[in-house]
Amino acid sequence: MSDAGFDDWLHAFAADDGYYLECANGHGLLPPRRICPDCGSTEFAEASLPESGTVAAVTTVHVPAPSFDADAPYDTVVADFGAIRLTGVVDAEPGTTEIGDDVEPAVGASETTGNDVLMLRPVSAVVEDTGPE
Amino acid sequence: MTGVRVAGVGLTHFGSHPDRTGRDLFAEAALNAREDAGVPLDDIEQLNVGNFAGSLLEEQGHMAPLLAEAAGLDCPATRYEEACASAGVAVREAVRTVRSGEADVVLAGGMERMTNNDTPETTEALAIAADELFEIRAGVTFPGAYALMATAYADAFDVNEGELKTDLANVASKNHDNAIPNEYAQYQREISVQQALDAPPVAEPLGLFDCCPVTDGASAIVLVSEEYAAEHDLSAEVAVVGTGQGTDRMALQDREYLARTPAADDAAAMAYEEAGIDAADVDLAEVHDCFTIAEVFAIESLGLYEPGEGLGAARRGETRADGDHPVNLSGGLKAKGHPVGATGGSQIAEMTRLLRGDHPNSDAVADAEVGVTHNAGGTVASAVVHVLEVAE
Prior knowledge:
heterodimer; A: about 130 residues; mainly beta; CATH 2.40.50; 5-stranded mixed β-barrel; 3-stranded antiparallel β-sheet; 1 helix; globular; B: about 400 residues; alpha/beta; Peroxisomal Thiolase, Chain A, domain 1; 9-stranded mixed β-sheet; 13 helices
């Protein structure tokens, strides 16, 4: 079963085509949306996401939910991409990510479930786009 | 609009009671509250009960009629769900019902049965208080979300990791100290700051002793109108004089602030305005310390501290029992325990006991007249604040 709006948005990262929604008054949002919670606008256009964002908060998760059991420990971050922020699992050695680091989005898979996961890769570690592991 | 009094409070022991059903836990709390209040069963006109995850943790939905029956009640009953603020919302709506004159006597409270599940199942159930698409699928756990907020706080206010962890360990140690004499508390034992610092990591920078435990328990309070209290000669000297509620975006990533909790700011402002007080009038507070960093956010949202200044309050002794701003004299969620759907009602019950003078820690605040409770849902996407006063 799919989650309309969200799945298309997530999979766009796999095609290096990440986007967010911008309302008529310039507020950034993530889909699915029908109304802007900032201003009430109901008109949206897709806008290209910057290639990289900056880590604004980070944690190393040692005690995961069962759905991430085999992935732990791992770093999860909230990263600032300008109009919006993204939350994702960092594709790097746990404990090595710091606030202020640059990251770029990609789609990976949970080692536990195989489900798609929004990954955020340290920009310095990206040599070329190798796609999801 | 009539005034609202707390006529009675009831609690179960908070702790590990895996063999006790949720209905039995709530029945005990409700009977204790009614006995404390001295209110006849037939006078209770409404039940508002908080429960967060009974449908997952106990495979039981439709909780309100079940818990009404368990408490011996035959009246309109509604279950409120606002994650960890479920009982806070149940109490708030009960206050509003009594104020409006629709009912003179309302029983409010909450219940959660949790330890009948293993820790991974409970972790997964609690995580549903976060955004399923954008947070849970990105590996965010409940402690992980607060850990993200903690690192954002440290960054915003230029605190290094060592200082952050030490100040948070002081919050844990303080709340354990407060729980020692509390007969309802899950952990009636002290922990040192060093023990907290040495605990294994859960979601860095938070360790095991930064996290509240998994808890079974129930809470209940009997709220009555001033008129009913007078007519029935009830000893109901504590009044609920302010109630407020606030809402924020669900996911951390979508919020204006990662290191502040504006939903609680809004709830406090609303409650203080109703009560005609400001933060300087608050003598003591029971706040939602599901994680040690959450107590820091709470005391800043309540206006007891400016943003960035709450972190060191426990270390400096200011929020200890003998400090200027005693916080969580019950032991808080950290040491008293956190049966999720019961906590908001427990805070009102503990504050009432503290103000009445029959709490084991009442002597520390013998002259207190104004107490505030702060109950938060999830990562404070929802918050409820109540102001209680010793009535003249």
